[in-house]
Amino acid sequence: MLGVAPGNTFTRSEALILLKGIVGDYSLRKALHLSIDGITPAFSTHPSGFQPIQGRENKAKRCFVPQQEPTRSRNPAHRPAVQYRMPSVDELRAWLGVQPTSGDPVEIDELRSPKTYRQALEREFIRRRPGQYSQAWLAQRLVLSTRSIYNYHRAEGIVAEPCFITTPLTWTNYERMLPPFGIAKRLGLNTRGRFIEDETGKRYPALIGVAQRLMGQGRHIELCERTNNCYRYPQHSDVQPTSGTTYGNGTKLGIVMRSSSLPD
């Protein structure tokens, strides 16, 4: 916790002051009453003779407001504040059975809510490892919905580059690559995100009749199938979006992975 070293003791009031604007009272109470195995508390109470943590004194305020000792209740039945001991990282890791690993850095302000924390984790993951991922896998990694991951990417400015698997169409494979909708449905083939593209970059519906007409005209066509997007943070320039008919490094309107044919 901010301002409390492992082994130090603190009260709930002191923790609220240190975590003001980051963690609320409800979340703090839940954390202080957390038990690891249902019996042992994560923040154990400290015996008598503790040394309370020293808060930072506002020197500017000291010049105008006299510093007084806090009033104490004279009632002997008054309940003293509960003191909690801050566990170390090694103790928490041993209790939870977690192996030591490196994590992505996040700012303190991003810990104020689960949403901002998860959004920061997603941003740092894409910044550290840009590449091709399934949106469902990214959502499952943070126990979220795909819609929430989409909103996180928009908020953080993460670039989603569309990727396609392209297969050249010829007179020998076009019937196998372009089955009718009814047959494709019975075979469990996904026909969404598919289209035919010619050498000029013009797109056509992925239909057998269209492929026959284009090949009869001597056009060079290929079947494009949409696959998982490639995600990157704006600072990374290793994957740049292109448009038009520029093939060069095999990229057209996204990343294109070429294959000679589809397996039987």
Write down the secondary-structure element order: EHHHEHHEHHEHHEEHEE
Largest sheet: 6 strands, mixed
Q: Please give the oligomerization state of what you see.
A: single chain
* Radius of gyration, CA atoms, in whole angstroms: 30 Å
Strand content: 15-25%
Number of domains: 3
- Which range best describes the helical content: under 10%, 10-25%, 25-40%, 40-55%, 55-70% or over 70%? 25-40%
Distance between the termini: 58 Å
Described by the principal axes of the CA atoms, the overall outline is: elongated
Mean pLDDT: 77
By DSSP (H or I, 4+ residues per run), the number of helices equals: 10
Q: What structural class should be given to the helix and strand makeup?
A: alpha+beta
Low-pLDDT stretches are 47-53, 238-254, 259-264
Please provide a written account of the structure:
The two termini are 58 Å apart. This protein has 3 domains: 63 residues, no CATH class; 52 residues; 99 residues, no CATH class. The strands form 2 sheets. Strands 3, 4, 5, 6, 7 and 8 form a 6-stranded mixed beta sheet that branches. Strands 1-2 form a two-stranded antiparallel sheet. By secondary structure, the chain is an alpha+beta fold. The chain is elongated and about 100 Å long. The C terminus is likely disordered. It has 10 helices and 8 strands.
